[in-house]
Amino acid sequence: MARLYGSSKRILVTGGAGFLGSHLCDRLLADGHEVICLDNFFTGDKANITHLLPDPKFELLRHDVTFPLFIEVDEIFNLACPASPIHYQHDPVQTTKTSVHGAINMLGLAKRLGIRIFQASTSEVYGDPVVHPQTEEYWGHVNPIGLRSCYDEGKRCAETLFFDYHRQCGLEIKVARIFNTYGPRMHHADGRVVSNFIVQALTGVPITLYGDGEQSRSFCFVSDLIEGFVRLMDSPGEITGPINLGNPVEFSMRQLAEQVLAKTGSKSEIKFEPLPSDDPRQRQPDIGKARSLLGWEPTVALADGLDHTIAYFRERGFGAA
Ligand code: NAD
Ligand code: UDP
Ligand code: UDP
User: Ligand 1: which residues within 6 Å by Cβ?
Assistant: First the structure.
């Protein structure tokens, strides 16, 4: 048992100092829970959680999920893993270890405690999809030996482990396949398209558009995604996922660049650069399952989410005179 007194839950968030993890910590604390935020600070930033440190219900644990962990909690959200291509390709072996060994350790912990565990999986399990939009039934089109494989195959193997622990040990699992998400606390230098374009526009350097800019993505604002996480975690036990969470409104990267330029009033030019290898051509979630099973759908339009994100980067000093 995690505690003798009280009815709120004690929840472990791995990767809790990262972009998504820190917003999840905020939300869980606001809902009255205790939060243990675990992070090795590989890509996470203490600044994302500094405001939570005075809260007696918040606890910070420096730990690497590739090593075993023995603590007592009521639920686990497993988010630890570098998520942007330049971060996960920095040390690809460690990326696969984080997904696979991290999943084994967190599943082992959940099994010992008999608790529910959530996995932050990804639309990358669909690879460069030939089915569009992507439904959860689609098995994907993934290169097993390319530059993105450490992330894609690591996340696919983690899903395998989650479902085998579920079948073999009766563990309650919640697997979310997250599509591109953006918002305040994205790392300014993680190379992801929304942060890149905004920082480039605010600082007046060229916007780097890869390939012909016609490849598409669907961008979900972070507050919408976190609502989806909580609904999935709190859903009835028989709902295991995998379940797509993302915004189905699709944009080309060229449209995104134009929108960022218009919103920031930037004079940056658009500079075309080569498309990275294995870059998916298109990506759009089918969120029918999330709608029907969780009553969830995104509410924040890209135009509004970009305003919040641009304001965040301005506050951080980008584009200051
Ligand atoms: P992020 O890089 O901001 O956060 C990841 C966090 O995990 C960081 O704080 C990092 O320090 C920590 N971490 C990395 N390796 C670790 C390890 N071995 N042990 C402990 N902590 C470790 O990325 P994010 O965007 O917040 O992504 C969070 C999760 O969501 C990831 O699992 C990612 O794969 C998944 N995801 C994110 C997106 C997105 O668009 N942001 C899309 C799909 C999936
Ligand atoms: N584990 C952990 N914390 C726990 C229980 C297990 O980190 O509270 C790790 C443990 O180190 C093991 C892994 O989770 O390597 C998988 O545990 P499981 O019980 O499934 O397998 P086994 O211990 O039999 O290898
Ligand atoms: N991209 C781009 N310019 C950049 C960064 C990314 O044109 O400065 C493109 C990238 O090639 C991809 C899309 O934007 O087609 C989304 O890239 P990101 O790394 O954000 O996410 P992912 O490829 O993992 O979906």
Answer: 14-15, 17-21, 39-44, 64-66, 79-83, 87, 98, 102, 120, 122, 178, 180-181
Is the pTM value of this prediction over 0.90?
yes
Cβ atoms within 10 Å, residue 159 = 20
Q: What letter would DSSP give residue 237? A: T
Reduce the DSSP state of residue 117 to 3 states and report it: strand
CA distances from 290 to 78, 240, 245, 246 (A): 19, 12, 7, 9
pLDDT of residue 280: 85
In the DSSP assignment, the letter for residue 248 is -
What domains are there in the chain, each with its CATH number? 10-181+221-245 (3.40.50.720), 183-217+249-283+299-315 (3.90.25.10)
Continuous H helices in the chain: 19-30, 85-88, 92-113, 149-169, 193-203, 222-233, 253-264, 288-294, 302-315
Report angle CA 110, 113, 117 to the nearest 5 degrees. 30
Q: What is the pLDDT of residues 237-282, one digit of tens each?
A: 999 999 999 999 999 999 999 999 999 999 999 999 999 888 888 8
Annotated active-site residue 5? The verdict is no
88, 126, 151, 182: the active-site residue: 151
| Ligand 3-lining residues (CB < 6 angstroms) | 84-85, 180, 191-193, 196, 208-210, 215, 217, 253, 275-276, 279
Give, in order, the Cα–Cα distances in Å from 156 to each of 20, 54, 121, 265.
20, 37, 8, 41
Asked whether 88 and 150 are in contact (CB, 8 A), the reply is yes
